Amino acid sequence: MCQLLGMNCNTPTDIVFSFEGFRRRAGLTDSHSDGFGIAFFEGKGVRIFRDNRPAALSPIGDCVKQYNIKSLNVIAHIRKATQGSVDIENTHPFIREIWGENWVFAHNGNLHDLPDMTGRFCQPIGSTDSEAAFCYMAEFLKNRFRRKPAEQEIFAAVQEVTEFLSQHGTFNFILSNGEWMIGHCATNLHYLTRQAPFGKAQRIDDEGVIDFSEYAKEGDKVTIITTFPLTKDEKWTKMLSGGFVFFKDGEKIKEIIGVEREMFDDGTLGDRQVNECL
Asked: Which of 47, 185, 256, 261 gets the highest tally of CB atoms within 10 A of its CB?
């Protein structure tokens, strides 16, 4: 399947260190080679780069590194195709307008038998299950609220539509409107928040090292969400299946823990609901 990367922070930050390790998984250290994309929120706008070539070998990936864009919210995706051809229209992240805002979405998983979006206002352009699911989510939200509601109402509605879509398969995703970022875990999703005192970190995929104290200042908060940890010497939080995490200004504002797997006395595996909310 695909892999996801997101960044949410309280001061404009570049994602080069994380992205350089992440993109190596698209053709060098892993096989997610069916295209990649990365979206940077800039005010109300979004600057988005996509390529149907592997991110590790793409000149567009090199351009992202050299551009050194600073943003409060970034979403990136490396694709291992399960549905849809290896073309630009099927490359994540996807973008749609909701309540006059740009919403950006990237998905890892495989969904089947989704509702037919023919005749709906929001229709997929490509042929992936991911874009179809995002269109269903966008249509659901716009039908539920004609005007943008309060954040807590948005989060509750996203949870509701996610529970429905999750019945159709594996649904890991990252979603942002440029103000906040939501991560949902079905199988694998990890996060960490970097804040003072800042220290060094070493990448897993190529041994690259950075000392964040040379770039960050007191009060900065930078949260990274990704499918699998990108560094070997930082403490990553692994989300449980069905869990949601909500970040704003680099800070976790709410978390729904989800379920954890447990072994029953008869040797079978099952899910145990964990109801903590922060």
From this structure: 185
